Amino acid sequence: MSKEVLLAAVIGAQGLQGAVKVKLFTEAPEALPSYGPLRDARGKTYEITDFRPGKPGEAVISFSGVTDRNAAEALKGTELFIGRDALPATAQEEFYHADLIGLEAQDSEGRMLGKVAAIHNYGASDVMEILRSDGDSILLAFTRETVPTIDIAAGRIVVAVPEDDEGNDHVE
C-alpha cells in the first residue's frame, strides 16, 4: 500500500454554501484538484468541485456533498491526503517529506540514532523529529549541514550530530 501524503488541512468554513478554507502543503497549490479525490485519516473521500486560491498557502475549496456552512464547519481540522504514488516523480536529489518518514537515522559512523518520525515546520524552517528506541525524540534543524546524506533506496539518512550532544548518551 502506498504511503499517504498530507496535502491540505481544513482550517474553517468559508461562506454559507459549504466551502471550506484549507491550509495547503503543496509546492504548486493550483495542482491540488488535479490529484483527484482526497481522503481523510479514516479513508473517507472528498471530491473537489471548486477550487480558488486564497492567501499564500491557503485556498477555498468546495467538496461534492458538502452544501452548507454546518457541514463545512464539521470538517474543521480534517487533514486531507492522497497516496504517494499519485504524486509526480521526483528529480534526482529531490524527495517528498513523506519519503523520509520511517527511514533510519544514523550518525556519521553508522550508529543508529532512531527513525525519522516527522518533518515539522513551525514557521522559521523545517525541523526533523527522530524517534529513539527509548521513546524520546530528537529535534534537529532539517538542513543540508545537519542531514548531509539522504539515501531513500537504502532506507537511511545520516545525521551530523551537533558537537554539544556528542558527549550525551543518545546513540544506541
Structure description:
The strands form 3 sheets. A 6-stranded mixed sheet has the order 11-10-9-8-13-12. It is 8% helix and 40% strand. It folds into 2 domains: 83 residues, Elongation Factor Tu (Ef-tu), domain 3, CATH 2.40.30.60; 67 residues, SH3 type barrels. The chain is built from 3 helices and 13 strands. It is elongated and about 60 Å long. It is mainly beta.
Summarize the structure.
Helices cover 8% and strands 40% of the residues. It is mainly beta.
Q: What is the count of distinct domains?
A: 2
CATH architecture of the largest domain: Beta Barrel
Low-confidence stretches: none
Instruction: Count every beta strand, where a strand is a DSSP E run of 2 or more residues.
Output: 13
Number of DSSP helices? Answer: 3
Mean pLDDT: 88
- The end-to-end distance, rounded to whole angstroms, is 31 Å
- Helical amount among residues, as a percent range? under 10%
Strand order of the main beta sheet, please?
Answer: 11-10-9-8-13-12
Structural class designation: mainly beta
Oligomer: single chain
Radius of gyration: 19 Å
State the order of secondary-structure elements, H for helix, E for strand: EEEEEEHEHEEEEEEH
Report the CATH C-level class of the largest domain: Mainly Beta
- So, the CATH homologous superfamily of the largest domain? RimM
Largest sheet: 6 strands, mixed
CA-based shape: elongated
CATH topology of the largest domain: Elongation Factor Tu (Ef-tu), domain 3
Q: Which percent band covers the strand fraction?
A: 35-45%
